[in-house]
Amino acid sequence: MAVSLTRTVGFHAWHRYWRPDWTSAQNHAAFGALANPPGHDHDYRCAVTVTGPFDPVTGGIIDLPLLDQILHEEVVDPLQDKHLHRDIPDFAPGVMLPTCEALARWLFARIAPRLPSELTLTGVRVAEDETLHADCIGLD
Question: Which residues contact 137 (CB under 8 A, 6 or more apart)?
Fold first, then answer.
């Protein structure tokens, strides 16, 4: 029987939506105030869901300290107090806009290979606030 478990971690970061191949007018038309320098910050929440076989001996599917270590190393450490568009090369201007959707995909790709082989990463949710979140449920 498979069981899912979700762990949520938080981090504080800044982002700005800006495409260097567009004019200032195009950026502001598409992104409004989100294009203004230097960007704005969020207290992000990242919820990671893993699925795997239930172990009746341990009563769970993963050793929680292991999951916490993975999330600290792949989510919190690289993103805490960062300007996503300045400090993370994958979100640099002209590479990928640091949207919560893009961030969920980026984190999924980092976390999935770190999990024990018997587990599946079934979702990464990135929330900018209580009104906006994105879910990545796999990579294409």
Answer: 122, 123
**H helices present in 21-135, as ranges:** 24-31, 64-71, 77-79, 84-87, 100-111
User: Residue holding tokens 């929440």?
Assistant: 45
Q: How far apart are CA 38 and CA 13, in angstroms?
A: 12
Give the position of tokens 């869901």.
49
C-alpha span between 139 and 123 (Å, rounded): 10
pTM: 0.95
Q: How far is CA 118 from CA 55, 72, 112, in A?
A: 11, 21, 12
CA gap 45, 100 in Å, rounded: 10
How close are the terminal C-alpha atoms of the chain, in Å? Answer: 27
What are the tens digits of pLDDT across the range 4-43? 999 999 999 999 999 999 999 999 999 999 999 999 999 9
